[in-house]
Automatic annotation (TrEMBL):
InterPro entries: IspD (IPR001228), IspD/TarI (IPR034683), IspD/TarI_cytidylyltransf_bact (IPR050088), ISPD_synthase_CS (IPR018294), Nucleotide-diphossugar_trans (IPR029044). Its EC number is 2.7.7.60. Catalyzes the formation of 4-diphosphocytidyl-2-C-methyl-D-erythritol from CTP and 2-C-methyl-D-erythritol 4-phosphate (MEP). It catalyses: 2-C-methyl-D-erythritol 4-phosphate + CTP + H(+) = 4-CDP-2-C-methyl-D-erythritol + diphosphate. This is 2-C-methyl-D-erythritol 4-phosphate cytidylyltransferase. Pathway: Isoprenoid biosynthesis; isopentenyl diphosphate biosynthesis via DXP pathway; isopentenyl diphosphate from 1-deoxy-D-xylulose 5-phosphate: step 2/6.
Length: 250
């Protein structure tokens, strides 16, 4: 449990995606790495950090019972609940999860938004994010330096894809989750950006982008390569190897 004098911290754990790019038969969050589902491992990691008091998981609408059963061993004293996310966009799922989490813990002051797909995220990273919010930053994201050169190209749909720019790599960061927010900041950001959530094309790519859109200040703390997002079969193979390695379990 977190330090109550510093206010309650809750997490929205997004797991309602369809996992199209992974191409698994069932929901991606139930796919296993090292013999444990992404969902269970991600939720366990949040609780193992010792700084999260409650987790609301967003599940595909038809999978609430199965997802609830998957985390039943972690769910003592209302610490973990499962609600329906949205098939429309990740942003819409987070909005539903945020609403449910704040109903479960109305006194929450810090909110983390985390992807179940980043199941190997070390508890240390979770603690760094919460600490930075508690230190007074309204929006905090973990980021890693970019190793490839990134090019901006013309819109998809043109006959030949053409390069229009090469941003300075030294100023780019690959952004991960969990992303941490002062509760009022995240609520305001989702309220202001709500119209974008109806489809993934217009939706914000992450929650920090909603804060940026309302002119808020987002700070970056050091991310961790282990917080990789399981998106493709290659990511899954890597995550499985890492999860089986001794010492990686939190
Ligand atoms: N409508 C959605 C879409 C995504 N997510 C969650 O957001 C996280 C990041 O999404 P991603 O890993 O890209 O998962 P999918 O959307 O499932 O993948 P894809 O785009 O390949 O279908 C995941 O934990 C996913 O379950 C969600 O809760 N609701
Ligand atoms: C939120 C996120 O994990 C930050 O990197 C990412 O934007 C989610 O990506 P998605 O593929 O659009 O779900």
């Amino acid at each position: 449990m977190s330090d109550k004098t510093a206010g309650i911290a809750v997490a929205v754990l997004t797991a309602a995606g369809s996992g199209t790019r992974l191409g698994a038969r069932g929901p991606k969050a139930l796919v296993e790495v090292g013999g444990e589902s992404l969902l269970h491992r991600a939720a366990r990691g949040l609780l193992a950090s010792g700084v999260i008091d409650h987790i609301t998981i967003t599940a595909p609408g038809a999978e609430i019972d199965r997802f609830t059963a998957e985390v039943v061993d972690l769910a003592g004293e209302g610490a973990v609940v499962v609600v329906a996310g949205s098939p429309d966009s990740r942003q819409a799922s987070v909005a539903l999860g945020l609403d449910a989490a704040l109903k479960a813990r109305p006194e929450a002051e810090v909110v983390l938004v985390h992807d179940a797909a980043r199941a190997l995220t070390p508890p240390d990273l979770i603690r760094r994010i919460v600490a930075a919010v508690r230190a007074g930053h309204d929006a905090v994201v973990p980021g890693l330096p970019v190793v490839d050169t990134v090019k901006e190209v013309t819109d998809a749909g043109e006959r030949v894809e053409r390069v229009v720019g090469t941003p300075d790599r030294a100023r780019l960061r690959a952004i991960q989750t969990p992303q941490g927010f002062a509760r009022a900041t995240l609520e305001a950001a989702h309220q202001l950006g709500a119209l974008r959530a109806a489809d993934e094309t217009h939706a914000a790519r992450d929650d920090a982008a909603l804060v940026e859109a309302m002119g808020g200040r987002v700070v970056v703390v050091a991310g961790d390569p282990l917080a990789l997002k399981v998106t493709t079969p290659l990511d899954l193979a890597l995550a499985d190897v890492l999860a089986r390695r001794e010492g990686i379990r939190s």
